[in-house]
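[worker-b] picked up task from shared queue
[worker-b] task type: protein-ligand structure
[worker-b] ligand name resolved to flavin-adenine dinucleotide; SMILES cross-checked against name lookup, match
[worker-b] sequence length check passed
[worker-b] input payload:
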Amino acid sequence: MRPFDYYSPGTIEEVFSLLRKSKNEAKLLAGGTDLVGNMKLKTLSPKVVIDLKRIKGLNRINYSKRNGLRIGALATLTDIHTSVAVRENFSFLAQAAGEVGSVQVRNRATLGGNLCNASPAADTVPPLIAMGAVARVRGPRRERAVNLEQ
Ligand SMILES: Cc1cc2nc3c(=O)[nH]c(=O)nc-3n(C[C@H](O)[C@H](O)[C@H](O)COP(=O)(O)OP(=O)(O)OC[C@H]3O[C@@H](n4cnc5c(N)ncnc54)[C@H](O)[C@@H]3O)c2cc1C
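[worker-b] inference finished, payload out:
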């Protein structure tokens, strides 16, 4: 693995600031199950790695009849697989999360990482598209809603 600078910011605003300073040389790290493997193989060699795990609240899973299901980008696949709210209301998503890799992988891997890695074989994507899921994507200036199917 090539040497890199590691940052572990506590807020999303700090992430945007680091991304701006790194000028396209940075990669975001969530569970690392895709990114770290690629760095070891040298298929990716970012000069800067920005770890998202210290950002509070991004791992939450909330469900209400009124607002539906909201899953934070840092929720792990184990969180989703074992969530009572997901199991009771979207059992096919809980099942798909439980199919990924192994227990060790699922304990680290996040939903945000599974989506952002953009593998055509990502196991959480078919159930999310079937549910009509919408991603809330945040940038430095604004947030936008993107239908996952798009
Ligand atoms: C042994 C093994 C078995 C696996 N089996 C399966 C399987 O059966 N099914 C399956 O679908 N996947 C599988 N995977 C792939 C992997 O575990 C998943 O894609 C995982 O969900 C990625 O999440 P992560 O948090 O580890 O992402 P990371 O590795 O941290 O990040 C992946 C990519 O997404 C970006 N990223 C992560 N989070 C964000 C965010 N919040 N905002 C913007 N960009 C972000 C990163 O910069 C990086 O480019 C396997 C991996 C391994 C190592």
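[worker-b] attaching auto-annotations
[worker-b] The longest strand covers residues 134-138.
[worker-b] releasing lock
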